[in-house]
Amino acid sequence: MYSTSYLLFQSVTAVALGDALGVPYERQKRQDLLENPIHAMAGHQESDVPAGTWSDDTSLTIASLVSLTQGYNLYDLMMRYSQWYHFGDYTPFGTMFGIGKTTEAAIKRFDSGIDPQLCGGTSEMANGNGALMRMMPLAFYLMTSPHGYQFNDRVAKIVHDYTATTHRHPRSLIASGILTNVIIRLVYNPNKYAMLRAVKESLDYYRDKTEFADEVALFAQLEDPHFLRQSSNSIKSSPYVVDTLNSVFWCLMNSEQYSIAVTRAVNLGNDADTIGSITSMLASLLFAPVTFPQDWLKALKGRNQIKVAVSSALLSNYF
């Protein structure tokens, strides 16, 4: 196991790299990307921002990390999300962009005085990946617990309450549980077998819970090696949490290097920034230690913000 300081900095940087690589191609059709695949940072395309600019995926990750540096406090967490939304905090240029509808509605509920744990959307349509994109800081936070790590009721409640600030539907809670458990298990044991075992461990937990049992079948394909090895034509790269996890794990299972996994992710098109971001973060753990492409790093905006946030976290008692 590599040091927490190394892996945390690597993971946050990976979130930003995958995000920034995919930002110009969000909502792009896959066929167009097959003809002109993405390999480098680009600017002023789908979003009119310079090359290397990250969006909500990285902003919410940094905001979450900064909040957890002070401890687990959902009011503080939502306050920071609100500051990002209204004032452009945790962005490279002081301007927020790329927010999902469910996350935006949750922040507005918080602004109106709703309890943070009740701000998330509960409808079936409120199952976008806006919570998935910010799970990594919580995973690292959970690893420092004096209780030791097991995916149990205590950990699941923390993950669910954190997720519920923006997404409260059981499907989103399961998706967050799967991703958080995979992150932690990869830190301890970086290989594909451990990754798949972590998915199964999560799903076995939810199968035993009445309130989640009916939703588990939607994620069962993640335990099927044949599903994860099929053609990309069968993979939907949408913002829907199930599609997002399908895409991420498909990219990881069909790659043997960090940069290959990330370029596979963004070239799926559609929600290229979030799928690229989550894939990049997991690939940085799965293939650790990684050497990020120098041209990606050179173009990446806001690198000092990442360094400051990670440094502050590592000086705290929670990372």
Description:
With 319 residues, the protein is an all-alpha fold. The chain has a single domain (4-315), classed as ADP-ribosylglycohydrolase fold, CATH 1.10.4080.10. It is built from 16 helices and no strands. The protein has helices at residues 4-22, 30-35, 56-68, 74-87, 101-111, 136-143, 153-164, 170-188, 192-207, 210-216, 225-228, 241-253, 258-266, 272-286, 294-299, 303-315. Helix 1 runs antiparallel to helix 14 (272-286) and helix 7 (153-164) crosses helix 8. It starts with a helix and ends with a helix. GO terms for molecular function: hydrolase activity; metal ion binding. This is ADP-ribosylglycohydrolase. Keywords: Hydrolase, Magnesium, Metal-binding.
Throw out a few tags for this protein.
mainly alpha, ADP-ribosylglycohydrolase fold, 58% helix, globular
In total, how many domains does the architecture comprise?
Answer: 1
Measured as a percent range, the helix fraction is 55-70%
- Measure the end-to-end span: 15 Å
Text of the CATH class: Mainly Alpha
CATH superfamily: ADP-ribosylation/Crystallin J1
Q: Specify the CATH architecture.
A: Orthogonal Bundle
Derived from helix and strand composition plus strand pairing, the structural class reads mainly alpha
What's the helix-strand series? HHHHHHHHHHHHHHHH
Please provide the count of β strands.
Answer: 0
The CATH topology is given as ADP-ribosylglycohydrolase fold
- β content, as a range? under 5%
Number of helices: 16
